[in-house]
Design a protein that fits this description.
Shape: globular
Distance between the termini: 22 Å
Largest sheet: 7 strands, mixed
Number of helices: 6
Helix content: 25-40%
Strand order of the largest sheet: 3-2-1-4-5-6-7
Strand content: 15-25%
CATH architecture: 3-Layer(aba) Sandwich
CATH topology: Rossmann fold
Number of strands: 9
Oligomer: single chain
Number of domains: 1
Bound molecules: 5-O-phosphono-beta-D-ribofuranosylamine
Radius of gyration: 16 Å
Length: about 200
């Protein structure tokens, strides 16, 4: 598997720990990071993960950027991609060539609150709950077929920071669950959505 990151990398670290402990039965063949300053790189180094930094600014267009990433993934014989706080939209050709092999984690109950400020928006809208979604990536933004979702209640008197911490704690449980289903070949994408087969 490859993990794509741009930021702090706590989900990446959680996955790496679970691979290390044997809870997740896969190899992290490559970490792809589009931001040299990302703290995720420091974490990846601590786990001895192979990383590449590939910044969009270094390429003349998005297609070229995506093509070079695919080349690196093929070199490492990657079978699937886990987006974990990757802040860039992958191009349609890239998404098509990895159809239903790219998973993403999003901190809301999609289709509610797509985009980068999902937790804050749910909090400010005074929702009773928000949550976490794991989905396959399609050509849209946070729109692909949903694999798993889990609610996180917003308590009376909650602060944004406390809510964020609970959402992240839920992420660290839910993403590995979805990854296990993916690795076991139990996820089938149908017209109506993702079916979990036994
Ligand atoms: C997570 O909240 C994830 O749901 C969203 O970006 C955040 C990444 O955090 N896509 P981290 O880099 O894993 O700490």
């Amino acid at each position: 598997m490859a993990i794509f990151v741009s930021g702090t990398g706590t989900n990446m670290e959680n996955i790496a720990r679970r691979v290390q402990s044997g809870d997740l039965d896969c190899e992290i063949a490559l970490v792809v990071c589009d931001n040299r300053a990302a703290y995720a790189l420091e974490r990846a180094r601590r786990f001895g993960l192979k990383c590449i930094v590939i910044e969009r600014e270094d390429f003349k267009n998005k297609a070229e950027f995506d093509r070079v990433i695919t080349e690196k993934l093929r070199e490492q014989r990657v079978d699937g991609i886990l987006l974990a706080g990757f802040m860039r939209i992958l191009g349609p050709d890239f998404v098509r060539s990895w159809r239903w092999k790219i998973l993403n984690i999003h901190p809301s109950l999609l289709p509610k609150y797509p985009g980068v400020h999902a937790i804050r928006e749910a909090f400010e809208a005074k929702e009773k709950d928000t949550g976490v979604t794991i989905h396959f990536v399609d050509e849209g933004v946070d729109t692909g077929p949903i694999i798993l979702q889990r609610k996180v209640p917003i308590e009376h008197g909650d602060t944004l920071e406390a809510l964020e911490a609970r959402v992240h704690a839920t992420e660290y449980e839910l993403y590995p669950e979805a990854i296990k289903l993916f690795l076991a070949g139990k996820l089938v994408v149908e017209k109506e959505g993702v079916k979990i087969v036994q």
